[in-house]
Amino acid sequence: xxxxxxxxxxxxxxxxxxxxxxxxxxxxxxxxxxxxxxxxxxxxxxxxxxxxxxxxxxxxxxxxxxxxxxxxxxxxxxxxxxxxxxxxxxxxxxxxxxxxxxxxxxxxxxxxxxxxxxxxxxxxxxxxxxxxxxxxxxxxxxxxxxxxxxxxxxxxxxxxxxxxxxxxxxxxxxxxxxxxxxxxxxxxxxxxxxxxxxxxxxxxxxxxxxxxxxxxxxxxxxxxxxxxxxxxxxxxxxxxxxxxxxxxxxxxxxxxxxxxxxxxxxxxxxxxxxxxxxxxxxxxxxxxxxxxxxxxxxxxxxxxxxxxxxxxxxxxxxxxxxxxxxxxxxxxxxxxxxxxxxxxxxxxxxxxxxxxxxxxxxxxxxxxxxxxxxxxxxxxxxxxxxxxxxxxxxxxxxxxxxxxxxxxxxxxx
Length: 413
Known about the structure:
Layout: E1 56-58, E2 63-65, E3 87-95, H1 103-114, E4 119-122, H2 153-168, E5 172-175, H3 193-208, H4 210-214, H5 226-229, H6 241-250, E6 255-256, E7 269-270, E8 273-275, E9 280-282, E10 289-291, H7 294-302, H8 313-332, E11 339-343, H9 352-365, E12 370-372, H10 375-384, H11 387-393, H12 405-411
Parallel strand pairs: 3-4, 3-11, 3-12, 4-5, 6-8
Antiparallel strand pairs: 1-2, 7-8, 9-10
């Protein structure tokens, strides 16, 4: 749910989760190569469970401390003088719920096959049974209200399964908050910092107390301390960032991915938090640009309908993939600004947007100097760079190449 394009059209999306990862890292792009069992990586085969003696329960046992997260790269290093920046691409997914369509496991498998990581923005309500909805006190809305549906018990169990596996596979778990309110007086656009803090605290409680809320004692805990894991999120509809940032900063969050309509340029911090917006990308066949999220492409293809004319699906699929490809190519061949792409675990218009993501992710993963990373991994890299280098990168506009090449560009005073 977000702004659609530079036309200023506002639309609504649904919940899911985020992510992507890291592939083919090498020292010539500012990030050393990572391999399991070497250079400090935690030995753990993707897709396998942890041993029981590695699990130390937290609180009611909904979560656990299992040590260092597997499948993380070694500490990033600063760019060397004159070095070409890597091309970062961050695929993210809003909501991160498995609702029986098999999309969560599909993209976990895709990530394993291409050795990437992902960020999943988990909606806290996806771990709260509807029978317990009175526990949710959304700001400026009735008790238990939500503009996204509560999941069935079976789907909560599936969501727990795949969130657990996602973390063990090296992906990041962020937050998409809870009730997804995008309109009226209860919209997140109007929330104060204290109200955002309440929403965050509740999201954390739903993740860290699902065992108490469900009564399920025969399901493994989530293998991470969510209070330490949570370092960023994306607001519903990309609204309310001004109110959120003071709360996020006070909590020590490292980034926020809620700003709409950003340009493909190198990011800055707001209130001490990295501002990582969805971006305007070239939209094949049109003179305007479209926001880098599946729903925004849909809204410009089928006028907000998630079930458009089936005969148009093949063309729309090609156009969606072409949009991601155009955004990537523009940055990759010029200023190397990071590309942020948002998605939902949905089968809108016959699932064509999921196919477009899979197609382009595979393409990007094969290109040199490309880093498919989570948001947290990206800010890890940003935080070790020389601030003067980042300032210099920010002088490059959308589609602007460094004059004289990267070595000459960085030598300019």
